[in-house]
Design goal:
single chain; about 475 residues; alpha+beta; six-stranded mixed sheet; four-stranded antiparallel sheet; 12 helices; elongated
């Protein structure tokens, strides 16, 4: 007998409370597998394909494309029963599909598939709140033989069941090739968090390029050409008598909220210095001429930042306003600004202080590509402790950026341009860059901020200074 299950919009993590339906990936009557993406939604931070924890036939969809849904709102209903998406495609498969599409029916096939319905087609990856674990009460079978043969299938997933809080964590595990049954969760009651998956992936040596998507996922993406993707709503709006009104939501809404809060709460100050980057450019050319992975200029600046933060740890901090305490953080999670067609986003390189220039370059390239493709996860856009902002790509020299709340500082890098410069007592044309440093005056005084910026400038002018920290 088919059981209709309702799948609601899950908590996508990072405090997100709503999402906008961008594109449905299934329609009513389609057969879906466990963990198959069924809808693409746009949160305030990223585009996310939401996987369904149930396998069966889609009986209803809720929400039109472009509609905003709160967390917990129904997304779709699935008739879970004899229609296993993994079932043979012969004549019995058609009968299975028909029987599962029915809301009820005391057929032999419906009774025989109770264990598969309860076991969620053997997923074992529990989505908390919607999970694929078997319910406490089992449906009783009419035929004893069917019961005996079905029990091993019922019990098989149990030893490998794992607790996962979000579909994003499960998707991250699939993309990084991490077996969730081998991951020990550090969250409450053994809950597996994003950090646990990333640590497992790092242990498995994922310093290389990101894994390709699973075969089924690749085929699914291939079947959906980019031309079918609806236009972004961020550039839309409604015309009224006084002009064009554009909704302040999505990425733009989150940016507006964070920057406004930063201005309200953080007493920031900015200092500048010009630096001769000629030697840094020469050092990069020498690195890339030696073969191997290319090192980007942004990665070298990131490496300089982590060295400077090791020297001035007061700046890798946040302020707990409720406790009235400055919290100095042990690890550097380096955010860097990246411009995308959805607006400005800040991907975060985890444990940047433990990475060398090559590793930073590879990870920053991966995150940038994911951000511009709209496939970066909210988890990869959160948790930064310091931000590097390269606004030189816009052809400008300087800026007074707003600190990325709740961080305490941000380094800005302007364009590198040939300018007259006194070098070794003589006037010469050198490649000069303007560095700006904006900091929270609550965490340090001007002497600390000035020392940080001067150290960064020294490393830019004389990259050999970094050798002291290698």
């Amino acid at each position: 007998m088919a059981v209709v299950r309702e799948f609601t919009l899950p908590d996508l993590g990072e405090g997100l409370t709503e999402a906008q339906v961008v594109r449905w990936l299934v329609k009513v009557g389609d057969v879906v597998a466990v963990d198959q993406p069924v809808v693409e939604v746009e949160t305030a931070k990223a585009m996310v394909e939401v996987p369904c924890p149930y396998g069966g036939v889609v009986t209803a969809r809720f929400g039109e494309e472009g509609e905003e849904l709160p967390v917990g709102a129904p997304l779709l209903t699935v008739a879970v029963g004899e229609t296993a998406p993994t079932a043979p495609t012969g004549g019995t498969g058609g009968a299975d599909t028909a029987s599962a599409a029915k809301p009820a029916g005391p057929t032999d096939g419906g009774e025989a598939t109770g264990s598969r319905a309860n076991g969620e087609e053997g997923s074992g990856n529990v989505l908390v709140g919607y999970g694929t674990q078997a319910p406490a009460a089992r449906r009783r079978r009419v035929r004893p033989q069917a019961r005996e043969t079905a029990r091993p299938a019922e019990r098989a997933p149990a030893p490998t069941a794992v607790a996962v809080i979000s579909p994003l964590v499960r998707r991250l595990a699939r993309e990084r090739g991490v077996d969730l049954t081998q991951v020990r969760g550090t969250g409450p009651d053994g809950l597996i968090l994003r950090a646990d998956v990333e640590e497992a992936a790092l242990t498995a040596l994922t310093a290389q390029a990101p894994r390709t998507a699973p075969v089924g996922q690749t085929a699914r993406h291939t079947a959906r050409p980019e031309t079918a993707r609806p236009a972004r709503r961020g550039s839309g709006g409604r015309r009224v008598a006084d002009g064009l009104r554009v909704p302040l939501r999505g990425v733009r809404g989150v940016v507006a909220e964070k920057l406004s809060r930063s201005r309200r709460e953080i007493p920031d100050a900015t200092c500048w210095v010009d630096a001769d980057a000629t030697e840094l450019l020469a050092a990069r050319r020498a690195m890339n001429a030696s073969g191997g992975a290319k090192v980007s200029l942004l990665a070298l600046l990131a490496r300089i930042c982590t060295a400077a933060l090791a020297k001035y740890p007061e700046l890798n901090a946040t302020v707990d306003t409720e406790a009235q305490e400055i919290v100095r953080l042990p690890d550097v999670h380096l955010g860097f600004a990246a411009q995308t067609d959805r607006g400005l986003v800040v991907p975060v390189v985890r444990d940047a202080n433990a990475r060398n220039a090559v590793e930073l370059s590879v990870e920053m390239a991966r995150l940038t590509e994911a951000a511009r493709a709209g496939k970066i996860s909210p988890a990869e856009l959160a948790g930064g402790t310091f931000t590097l902002n390269n606004y030189g790509v816009f052809g400008v020299d300087g800026s007074t950026p707003i600190i990325n709340h709740p961080e305490a500082a941000m380094l800005g890098v302007g364009r590198i341009a040939p300018k007259p410069w006194v070098h070794e007592g003589e006037l010469a044309v050198r490649h000069v860059v303007q560095l700006s440093f904006t900091f929270d005056h609550r965490v340090c005084d001007g002497g600390t901020a000035g020392g940080f910026l001067r150290y960064v400038a020294d490393c830019v002018e004389q990259p050999a200074v970094l050798l002291r920290t290698v």
